[in-house]
Write a structure and sequence with these properties.
With 200 residues, the protein is of the alpha+beta class. The protein contains four helices and six strands; from the N terminus they run βββαββαβαα. Pfam families: MoCoBD_2.
């Protein structure tokens, strides 16, 4: 019976005859070759805490008041992720979050047919995202702190990096031209409309 088997140091064997053993990779390969089904395991854990990560975001923009175009020229994003286990990956995650956030802030929008409810821009030809050429210089910085409840002192860094980007862009636009935009994406048309309303 399976409950009599022992798994140690990558091998499975009976305790009374440890010389008769098989490696776990060999066992999995045999199971797949003989259609025994998948190897499935279950586990659960209740962490001591789920500490949030904190993000700070700073954006510098140029706003063309004739066309309404907003160009992001510089971006700084800082993250409290506890102890960064892999610094390059954390910095990449911060830069990727900035990319997503800028897309949400300035160009990504879904358009639906009002009568049928069909998505009108399902591909990247019509659903615009930030390209490499659109991206500003991104300067990530990391608050290297120890989180006692996290693995190896770490906390998460993921979707949270995206969250403050659009508000930071809106604040930068307000700082540049004095109009407050609250509807995403902040397209040139919306910028021009807000500038016209401010002038009137």
């Amino acid at each position: 019976p399976a409950e009599n088997l022992v798994a140690e140091q990558g091998r499975i064997f009976l305790p009374e005859d440890p010389d008769k053993s098989i490696t776990i990779p060999d066992l999995v390969a045999a199971a797949q070759a003989n259609c025994w089904g998948s190897a499935i395991g279950e586990a659960s854990v209740k962490p001591d805490a789920c500490p949030p990560h904190f993000i700070a975001c700073f954006i510098e923009v140029n706003v063309d008041t004739r066309t309404g175009r907003v160009k992001v020229v510089n971006a700084v994003s800082g993250a409290d992720v506890g102890t960064p286990i892999n610094l390059n990956n954390v910095e990449g995650q911060i830069t990727g979050g900035m990319h997503m956030g800028l897309g949400y802030a300035l160009m990504e929008d879904t358009c639906f047919d009002k009568e049928q409810g069909h998505l009108m821009n399902p591909g990247f030809l019509d659903y615009k995202i930030f390209t490499f050429a659109d991206m500003p210089s991104v300067q990530p910085f990391i608050a290297d702190l120890v989180e006692p409840t996290g693995p190896f002192g770490a906390k998460g860094v993921g979707e949270g990096v995206t969250n403050p980007v659009a508000p930071a862009v809106a604040n930068a636009i307000f700082n540049a031209v004095g109009v407050r935009l609250t509807d995403l994406p902040m397209t040139p048309e919306k910028v021009l409309k807000a500038l016209k309303e401010k002038k009137d």
